[in-house]
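Practice set, problem 2.
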Amino acid sequence: MKLGIHESVEAVFPPAELRTALDDADGVEAELIGDDPIALGACDGVVTFAYREYFLDAVEWVHSIQAGVDRFPQAEFEAEGITLTNSTGIHGESVGETVLGYMTAFARNLHAYRSAQERSEWADPAWDRPFTLDGESVCVVGLGTIGQGVAERATWMGMDVRGVRRTPDPVPIVDEVYGHEGLHTALMDARFVVLAVPLTPSTRRMIGPAELAAMDDDAYLINVARGGVVVQDALVSALEEDQLAGAALDVFQEEPLPEESPLWEMDEVIVTPHSAARTRDYFRDIADIVLDNVERQADGLTLRNQIV
């Protein structure tokens, strides 16, 4: 099988690293592809970060190196008989550790110390400012691989964990699970609210003024889902009016986050560049999924993480 590696994966890792990992497998030939429909047309499938309209005419299989596939027109893929797979299932550890880092930074005031260091200031916090994660509560909205990765690490820290998912079926590492209709109840009294849902019609603008108002004024919002899950203007207003203690944001309505965004200047906000899932082993994790699917395709089986 001949696979194209689209140049857009360079946003996450060097394309040549993935090519080497794929070329080591029997029966697979990997080729680096620029934005060239003709070159891609010689391939059976493409591994990509971005979506290009010409994919629909060029290949039979598209693999997204991200878990989210909101940028891919799934109805058109289905109409054209093109298979779409994603990379869900590989981000629980990396994103879980990133979220744990956000929560630790807020609890121990590390973000404030770092900012003070840039100003050469010896800034002692108020005596009642720092706290420990042990005994605090976290509400994880979305209990897929990423959400469960967050919940597992929060449990290690002695935190009380509640979760929200489409159906309130129990999850072993979560103390209490709510359905989407119980979202407001789940948000109340949680020191941290972590968003880990995919962007779908039902989750778009899921966190707006009413949901932010349901959170305590000493709560922190952490978004490692998609920017569209949050009404960003409402979040900015809530932060400006001290309705929240702070926020850690890895995703935004517009990326990169524009220079004029007020979020850059807020001391109580941690901004990261959509990097929560990044790891030096990312390309190896992608290669494992792709090669598994090459074997599945040869055996006539449903592909792993098949969306369409």
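Problem 2, part (b): a different protein.
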Amino acid sequence: GVTMKKILFVPIILGLFPILGSAQDLDTGDTSWMLISTALVLFMTLPGLSLFYAGLVGRRNVLSVLMQCFSIACLMSILWVICGYSLAFGNSVNGYIGDLSLVFLNGISFDSTSGTIPTTVFVMFQMTFAIITPALMVGAFAERMRFSSMLLFTSLWLILVYAPITHWVWGGGWLGDLGFRDFAGGAVVHLTAGSAGLIAAIVMGNRSGFPSNTLPPHNLTMTVTGACMLWVGWFGFNAGSAVGANGGAGMAMLVTHISASLASLTWMFIEWLKYGKPSVLGIVTGMVAGLATITPASGYVGPLGAIVIGISAGAGCFYATQFIKQTLKIDDSLDVFPVHGIGALIGLLLTAIFSSAQYGGVGLDEGGIFSQFSIQVFGSIVTLVWCGALSYILLKIVNSIIPLRVSEDEESKGLDVVLHEEAGYNL
């Protein structure tokens, strides 16, 4: 009889623990997935994006790009803790910006929860987005921006551009209330980074020798390695944006992979037909385009949507790249705007169509496709205008304090030696 009581006693006691846990609504499965997703999104910047970009520049600038990505990761993290998180996710001030109630993560403790996960995990997950967004911009002004002015510009940009737009879309702000759909950062991350990068490339001017004499990528092996890391990390980016281990995360992961695969192949085949040979640089750039384009749609569309979005991304971003560089003659060094900006726009607009239940999506509000499409267009334009205007003003302000650009002589020597007294290769 005693052993029987003991045997019954153990499950009764163990059974109490979920009740204690549910008082705080904490779900260990969701928490585990979000911890993994957070690590995956940081992995996208360090080392993924860093290596992707570093391989694409000339060998005299390889360290400067790695240094920019690394220092941005450190600096944006601290700014996020100081005020970025509060401005993005604090109590809404008329839907436009978060208040300062959460500065220095005030009041966030061991047992604070956001939905079913600890608030600390949500803060950290969103921090990794705040890191990669300015890091994406680095590619647009690679090989010519002064390190000190880059640090100042990205710091101001995080606070005045990234935090408000994040609040509008995800932090309880007015665009989210309007029904604007951006699951994992089409507008918040890719459209802002792409358009700010384009403005920076225009304000700073082309690299000397552009477009005829710019150096080819110095290490495509490094670029492909970084691209592969980006692909893996992106599962945390998109599927993690479900903020839970659930069906939404599963579908987001599946459609993300479909889009990346199809965009890679689409870019490769267009290039093959046009130039007679498929390039390694082409297939990995197509992959990044496919990932950026599915990002806003990833939680709303099914496999059919992912197929159309992937093909549209590969073709749309390929021709956008040609148009920016060859027709407009803008030296967006590593194609940040045509890949991330244009990709995000395609994805944001196609979200309206393929969210529809008839195409395997999650369904639309009663206004249907047309209503959602007009909201998507409006949200995209607002993001572009705010980001473009503020980025332009900030670049002008920074330039008046520290020159944005290195001298022509310094540019020809390479930023590694000029700005950091180091060389990537001492062979």
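Answer key, part (b): Residues 4-23 have pLDDT under 50 and may be disordered. The CA atoms of residues 137 and 197 lie 5 Å apart.
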